[in-house]
């Protein structure tokens, strides 16, 4: 079960297409928009194996030299990814205006049009290296002003080991001590998104209706993400790979480490999407067990309210429950989890068990008054329930990570 170093072009590539991470195929700190050219074009239904690169180890405050950074932590030079070295060497970002994340893409999916949903199925996630980094940096995280103590940045190098037949992340009890604390890996992509309309590339940190840095740890192998298409061809991208993350991501980052992801991209036409889920602005996750609507807002309380509204709307659209009954069901049976509180826009997601509705006949989407006054006719969306789009941050505000 040991991890094979997956340098570009080496190892198993199970997808119909292979997309490397390189200076020509990634964005660093910003996300694609309508004006960006696709680096790969595929037919709907095809799979793509995509190399992703973690930003940890390539950032400026880490020396912008992943070879030196990781070999300084005891990693053999041959185990440092050559595409990470290339990206750090050849690309630059504005450390005050741009985010930290590296995303691979965009990928044009034939036939995807605004109004459709892009369905992204996570087929396989392969760790590319046996190590990662967990950071509390730049005075950010859940305990701003408290941690880190006396330091500007804390980055914890975290090896991955095989123990009792499983891969685990390993931490010491005290700095420099033996690795006796262990936690299981559950790899997922923190960033999965579609290009926004217009010619302004969004900042890579805040998530929005385009998806982006949603950091929902349910997006492991076998899960599905639905995103409303905003531009022709969708122009999909992925990045911010994680080996493990707790809900909340409280210190600022998860166990950040590079993954090779194989994803299937499908297009759900607008009419079919409306019949399946009702109107929503996304993102929407589906696992083997749950439908998972989301709520996004800079204020965590408002993100929670938006998620509840989205969950009520989804239940009404899909199963036809009266509004007060849907609300009662959510209160009794649904967990609302905090995706993260560290990405400018906070995220909440609800886990609705589909099995609970096995005896309910499916219905069409609800009428425009499904959530009372304030709905936009024909959408089922209230002004308060629309997620905040992850646009550019306020001028002069630092979002380094």
Automatic annotation (TrEMBL):
Pfam families: FmdA_AmdA (PF03069). GO terms for molecular function: hydrolase activity, acting on carbon-nitrogen (but not peptide) bonds, in linear amides. It comes from Microbacterium limosum. Residues 361-401 are annotated as: Disordered. SUPFAM superfamilies: Acetamidase/Formamidase-like. PANTHER family: FORMAMIDASE C869.04-RELATED. This is Acetamidase/formamidase family protein. It comes from the Bacteria.
